[in-house]
Amino acid sequence: MERRLVAEWAYGPAPAAVNEPAEVPVRYRDIHGYRRAFRMAGSGPPLLLVHGLGDSSDTWSHILPRLARHRTVIAPDLLGHGESEQPRADYAVAAYACGMRDLLGVLDIERVSVVGHSLGAGVAMQFAYQFPERCERLVIVGGGGVGPEVHPLLRLASGPGAELALPLATSAPVRKALGLAAPLLRLTGGLGLGRHDFDYVLERYLALSSATSRQAFLRTLRAGVDLRGQVITMMDRSYLTAGLPTLIVWGAHDRVIPVEHAGIAHGAMPGSRLEVFEDAGHFPHHDAPERFISVLEDFLDTTTPQEYDAVRWRQLLRRGLPDESLYPEAEAHPSSGS
Q: Which CATH number is correct for 25-151+231-319, 3.40.50.1820, 3.40.50.720, 3.40.190.10, 2.40.30.20?
């Protein structure tokens, strides 16, 4: 309650819903002995929404009801995040991809189109690589795994001593002071995050108030980032997306993962579409929700789900390069409109 009051005083409420009155409630399932939280709404073709580091399914709450008009939308809280359990466990991207497979299995969902933001984009890509028979389409939003560049604060937080520093930095007095100082910090550059990303990142930081949430955050961070930057990459396997309809969305003012990574990913993923939102940061689904919904729904409506072919998949793995004679190339829509 204190965090919410301080946060709303400092920078206002979370992104407004786009003309949809009902919030989708959180549900729970026990999988492998751990509580998994998720939101689920709608009916029709399944759409999986995967949030980023330190975030939760709440990041999609303002657009989820709209997307659920014509689709079955599933938005989980990753293990260690949101209302899911926060155990001492494996927080690597591959483990998260397995977790998505298992949740879908419990829900009797065989195949999905996957949307992933930030860390969630890495999970989505890993899901597509590990379980190609289950992935119909792939959407990357400000995704990790393209290059080492990442915000310096994340690199610093991955280093030794963070276990001691983070409890102090997230103590109640510090959280309150940061909330009160938020307007000044925003005016002076928002700790290098810029006006688009500072508010929501600060809110996520203020939520790290328990020891278990901090430990889960650090384990997840260190599985993908060290003092030199991002250590995981999707580039060595990006050719496996040949034939998989892929959309890449990025904010031009992303200060967490630079927008230059969008072009690199687009060039490495055969037939992908690229949409750069000019007036958005690391959270384009917050900064421009109407456009995000429009771009996403257009992509889903105008592409054909990938049909998995085990023979073609093995051929791709053996050759290591996309074979355009095996895969018809998807239409590319590079864009930089706002």
A: 3.40.50.1820
